[in-house]
Design goal:
With 247 residues, the protein is mainly alpha-helical. It has one domain: Up-down Bundle (Heme Oxygenase, Chain A). The chain has helices at 2-13, 29-46, 59-74, 76-85, 90-103, 112-122, 127-133, 139-153, 157-183, 193-199, 208-217, 219-244. Helix content is 70%, strand content 0%. α8 runs antiparallel to α12.
Length: 247
């Protein structure tokens, strides 16, 4: 019922003028301020999490992290799949399709999955085995991923896109912290390429053509979506840290 309601509400979203390009858009100052405030608060909150204050990481913790984090990042395809399939807007579908193309290494290069496999193997983790058996897909991770989909199902198309944009924006923050954490593993540099790549992705910027008109008309929708994703993500890092450093 929630999904049907969201699809009906998205009809209003489709009335927005989505034909402008990023180069033609002027991002409002209040939008920039909102993004800056959200980013800064989130960045400061991560500094309080033990995971991101590690100075050395023993092999057993490395293995736990590599096996567990796979399921945190690996199920984002469900998030994107939901948005694309329940969108009536081809521009939104194109954003998701282009994101997936980059994820799988199209048209050239290694997929992000293969880059992660390289890291995981160095930590003694078999990614293929995790895909098949979900051995380390722990309850807090299942809740994290399930809550994403539940939230998407209860909100309209504009808020679903905003949530996607917020998630993608966090890559540029999260992976700075994750890359620093990865250096405590003392692995060869090429094993950490997965983390370095995500520091520089520009997936958020690709949503601005659609996101900015939404903000101009419904800034509260953008703020609510960002608040959910940022808070939910921060809680996940805390839960992961608690798991890694529990006795």
């Amino acid at each position: 019922m929630y999904i049907l309601k969201s699809m009906l509400q998205s009809a209003q979203f489709l009335q927005l003028d989505l034909t402008v390009t990023t180069n033609m858009l002027h991002i409002p100052d209040d939008f920039k301020q909102m993004l800056s405030e959200c980013d800064e608060h989130y960045r400061l909150s991560l500094q309080e999490i033990p995971l991101f204050n590690a100075t050395q990481t023993p092999p057993d913790t490395q293995k736990k992290f590599a096996a567990t984090f796979y399921h945190i990042r690996g199920h984002f395809i469900d998030f994107m799949w939901f948005i694309a399939n329940f969108s009536s807007n081809n521009a939104v579908k194109d954003i998701i399709i282009n994101n997936i193309k980059e994820e799988i290494g199209h048209p050239k290069g290694l997929s992000h999955e293969m880059l992660y496999e390289r890291f995981a193997n160095a930590c003694g983790v078999d990614v293929i085995d995790e895909i098949i058996h979900n051995t380390n897909n722990h309850s807090f991770i299942k809740t994290y991923n399930k809550t994403h989909i539940e939230w998407l199902s209860k909100h309209d198309e504009s808020m679903r896109l905003a949530a996607f944009a917020a998630y993608e924006r966090l890559d540029n923050i999260d992976y700075v912290f994750l890359n620093q954490f990865g250096t405590t593993f003392l692995l060869p540099e090429d094993k950490l390429l997965f983390f370095k790549v995500h520091i520089h992705v520009e997936h958020f910027e690709r949503t601005l053509d659609i996101l900015t008109p939404i903000f101009n008309q419904h800034p509260d929708k953008i703020k609510q979506s960002f608040d959910f994703i940022y808070q939910h993500q921060r809680q996940m890092w805390q839960d992961l840290s608690d798991y890694l450093y529990s006795s």
